[in-house]
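User: C-alpha cells for this complex, please. No commentary.
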Amino acid sequence: VKDELEGRSDAPRAAQIVGFEPCGLVTLLTDFGTSDTFVGVMKGVLWGRSRRLRAAIDLTHAIAAQDVEDAALHLAEARPWFPAGTVHVAVVDPGVGSSRAILAALDGGHLFLAPDNGLLTPVLGAGARVWRVDPARFGLTPPSRTFHGRDVFAPVAAALVDGCDPSSVGLRAEKWQVLPMTAPQPLGAGRVRGQIRRVDRFGNLISNLDADGLERLRGELAKAPRAQFQVRVGEVYAPLVDTYADAAKGAPLALLNSSGWVEVAVRDGDAARLLGVSRGAPIVLEPVP
Amino acid sequence: VKDELEGRSDAPRAAQIVGFEPCGLVTLLTDFGTSDTFVGVMKGVLWGRSRRLRAAIDLTHAIAAQDVEDAALHLAEARPWFPAGTVHVAVVDPGVGSSRAILAALDGGHLFLAPDNGLLTPVLGAGARVWRVDPARFGLTPPSRTFHGRDVFAPVAAALVDGCDPSSVGLRAEKWQVLPMTAPQPLGAGRVRGQIRRVDRFGNLISNLDADGLERLRGELAKAPRAQFQVRVGEVYAPLVDTYADAAKGAPLALLNSSGWVEVAVRDGDAARLLGVSRGAPIVLEPVP
Amino acid sequence: VKDELEGRSDAPRAAQIVGFEPCGLVTLLTDFGTSDTFVGVMKGVLWGRSRRLRAAIDLTHAIAAQDVEDAALHLAEARPWFPAGTVHVAVVDPGVGSSRAILAALDGGHLFLAPDNGLLTPVLGAGARVWRVDPARFGLTPPSRTFHGRDVFAPVAAALVDGCDPSSVGLRAEKWQVLPMTAPQPLGAGRVRGQIRRVDRFGNLISNLDADGLERLRGELAKAPRAQFQVRVGEVYAPLVDTYADAAKGAPLALLNSSGWVEVAVRDGDAARLLGVSRGAPIVLEPVP
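Assistant:
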C-alpha cells in the first residue's frame, strides 16, 4: 500500500523504493526493420546518454508493421532469458503522434517501456507497477511527432539504466490497454481447440496451446493417463512427440517447444509451406484414438 | 593555418591538435548485407585491436550495392543522434581496389572514414578537416585488394577510438569528391518541385524538401501566411499535416518527418505501393488552392 | 601426452592447462535468422551469466536452414580476423534433440562450440584438442529438447569467457564428425576443376580453388611461368585479374578474393544472375591458350 501511495504521489527520485536494480542491459524490439537507420539511431541515443550501459540487445526488428500482438508474444518469450534489472524497450506503435501514453512497467525485477496499446499484456502479472512516462520530466518536450523510439523511449531507457527510479518517470497508472489474447477452447474428453499464433523462420507453427493446458487434458483422461496425443492442423494429423528427431524426415510432428508452446513442425522441412497453414489457423489437440 | 600546415607536414601523433576526443563508439554503414560474415569480420578487427571500444553500432548494411547517394543520406540522418567523439565508418565503395583514396574527415567533433566517392557530401560542412588515409602508416600494406573494410577501415577506426590523432593518419586533403545532390526547384507563388529520395521500410516516401524550404515557401505567401500546404506526388494530392494520426486510415498525407524532411505516407498503409511511387519520382509542394 | 591423459581423466577445472586465455569476445553463427528472438535470447543468457563479456558479435544468422557445410565455410573465413581468446559459437544443428554431442574445441588459441556434425571441419587443424560438452557439469540438465543454443551453448560459452577451463567441460573426444569437403581435381597441364561453393550478397561466386592451388598450377607450367589464367564457368570465360577495377563494367572476371579463394564476379554486376550460375556449379581454372 505504501508503495502505491508513493507511486501516486509522484515523489521525484525517491530512493529506489520500487526495487529496480538495473544490470546494464537493454533489449530492443520494434517493427522498424534494419534497412533504415532507425535502430542504430536509438542505440546512438542510448550509448550517448548512458554511462552504465553494457549492451543493447536486438530481440527482433522484423515484427510486421504495427502487429502489436505478435510483438507481445515475442517479448513474452524472450523475457525469461534475461536477468532481472534488464530494461526492455518495445516500440510497435500504430498510435505514435496521437495521445496514447508511453508506459514504464515493473514486473519481477524487469522494467518494460512500451506504448499503451496492449503490447505488455503477456508480460505484466498481477503485481506489476505501471507509470505513464512524462517526457517533460526528462526535458524531452516537445518530441518529434513521428519517432518516439529515438526521442522518448531511448533517453528514458538510458536514464533507467543509469539508476533513475522508475517511480519518477511519471504518474502512476491504474489502468492500461490489455490485448484480447485468444484463449484455447476446451472441447471435453481430453480435446482442446487452439490457434496458430506465429510462424517462425523455419516454418514451424507455434500455437497458443501450452504445457499447462496439456496437463489439464491428461487430467480429463483419468482412465487413460498414459494416452498419446496428436494435433490436427490443416489437412493432417501430427503425433505429439518429444523432439524433432522422433519423426521421420518429411513427416509432420508436434511437440512442446523450447518456450513451452505446442508447435507443429515437419522434420527437416517447412511446415507452413508443406502443410499450407498460416497464422490464425485452428488446431485441435486430442488423444490418439 | 597552423593546423593546415601541420596536417601537410605529416607530423606523426601530434597531441590531439585537431580536437577529436573519442567516446568509444563506432558506427558501421555498408552495402555488405548481413548474410555473409563481412560485417562480423570488421567487428572482429575492431574489438581485437581497440582497448577503448564501448560499442560498434550498425546503422544499416542494406544499402543497395554501391548506391553511394543513399548511403550519404542515411549517414547524414543518423549522425545528429550520436555523441561527439563517435567514429563513423561508411563503406559503400564501387572503386575498391582502384586508386581512390580513403578519407578521414573531422566535422563538429565527429570523425568519418569513407571512400573518396562523395559519400561524405552531406555531413561535411565548411569547417571540415579532411585527410587521406595512408595505410602504410598503420603497417597495413599491402592490403587485400577487395576488402578494405576489414583491412584498412576497421584497423584505422580502432586506432582512432584508442586515441590516434586524426591528423596523423595521412596527408591533409584540400579537395575531395562531392556528390551532386539534387536540389529542390522553386516554382514561385509558394510552390516548389522536389524529388523522392528514399523509400523506408514502411513504404513512406522521403523527399529532398526540408523544413527550411517550407519556411521559405511561407515567406513567399506574405498575403496568406497561414496557408495550408499540400503535396502532389504520383496521381494524388496529400495534405501537409502534423502527424500520421491526423489522416484517416488509408488516406495519403504529408508531414515533416523526424529528420526534418517532407515525407509522404499513407495512414496505416504502404505509400510506395498504394500510390505506385518510387525513388526519383517528382513531388510538388504547394499551398492548398 | 600429459594433456591428453588429463583430458581423459576429466579433472574438473585444472588450472588452464590447455592454454586458453579468453579475451571477452564471443562470435555467433546460426541458421536462426533474425526475425525471431532466438539470437537475442542467446545474448540474454550470455550477458546475464558472464561478467567478463566485452561483445557478442554476429557472424551471420542467415545460413540456409541446416546447411552445415556453408556454416563451416563462413566460420573458417571469419576466424582469422578475431583475436586469440575468442569463443566461437556455431549452431547449425539438424540433430538437435538427438544424441549428437556438442563439441568444445581448442585450436590456435580459439575456442569453438558446435554440434558434432562436421561444422568444425575446416577450422580444426592437426593439433586441435576436442571435448564433448557435458551439460550436467554446468547444472544444465535436462535442457530443452529444441533450443540447445540457449540452454547449452550460451551458458557454456559464458563460462568459458569467464575463465572456465576448456578441459573441464566434459570428456576428451578422440573422434568427431568430419565433413567431406569437395576438393579440386587436377586436370594436368596447368588446369584444375573446382566447384562454386558459395554465392555472396553481391552475386559473386566463391569457389573451392585457393591461392596455394593456383601456385601449384603455375608450377606445372615451367615453360610458361608468367602464363595468364582464366576460369571457365557456365557459358563464359573470365580472365584472372588482380582487382574488380581491372575489368570493364559488365565484364566477367576472376580474382583471388580477400579470403584467398578464387572468385568469379561481374564488374558492377551480379555474376550469379548474369552468368546463370549457382552453388555447386563446376569451374575450370586454366592458362589462357
